[in-house]
Design brief:
alpha/beta, Cyt_trans-like, Rossmann-like_a/b/a_fold, two-stranded parallel ribbon, nucleotide-binding, 6 helices, globular, transferase, two-stranded parallel sheet, PPAT
Amino acid sequence: MTNGHLDIIGRASRLYDEVVAAVLINPRKAGLFTVEERIELLTEVTASYGNVRVDTFTGLLVDYCKANDIPVVVKGLRAVSDFDYELQQAQMNHGLAGVETLFMATNPLFSFLSSSLIKEVAKYGGDVSAHVPEAVRRRLVERLSTQT
């Protein structure tokens, strides 16, 4: 979770009565944090919004949306390259389940951020405190220090 993610969640929380930050459970992908740890961190850093709920899902996002009566997916776009991929997904999601996609332009302060870039910088001792919430920075540094 970067400050870019948090910015999109916060802005969406001002537009909708409830925002669900859904974490994909993908058993084929081993992340730096477990699903449970990701949920814990996401819950902690979004707690101040009051109308953000954290949940998990497996399979297709549109199936999760349909099952939970969620009509809109909010996506942050950092660059034109993001748009090409996300537009295809949005069109497929609409075709499969009628789920709409709202694209939000990322705040320029966060347009270069990606989770993989943050992990790479932190791995080599770089200061990522301006780019992630403090709780995430703390856990990231802690996790990476045990892997060396």
